Write the structure tokens for this entry.
Amino acid sequence: MGWLIDTSLWIAVERGALAAADIHAITRQAPVYLSPVNVAEIRFGLELLRPGPQKQRATAMLRRLRRKPQLRITVETSETFGILAAKLKKAGRDPHVRVNDLWLAAQAIQRDFRLLTSNAKDFADIPGLQMVVMNVP
């Protein structure tokens, strides 16, 4: 079994609200993977920052994260995404506003991984997702 970590937690570690050891206490010895979605969300945030110390820290954090084993988004991931988005739409929820969350969930479901997040409400209604919620102080 493996883990995907929601971007909010990677950011919490970068900001000092969590330590990497806090995440490790939950994931233990199981492998932790980086999603292209994590990279996209962090890169988006980086592009909005003005030059300065915060941008330098965030850039260094992204470099460190990119050393993690990375998952690819495959045709199978895309099919899982489509199924999830359709289920949410049929349930009366708008999957378009949560596209990045759905991609992370699709990757986790496809590989039978757990998703560690601090944003339970973002993932609570996604069928088949093994979610573990971590509180950020």
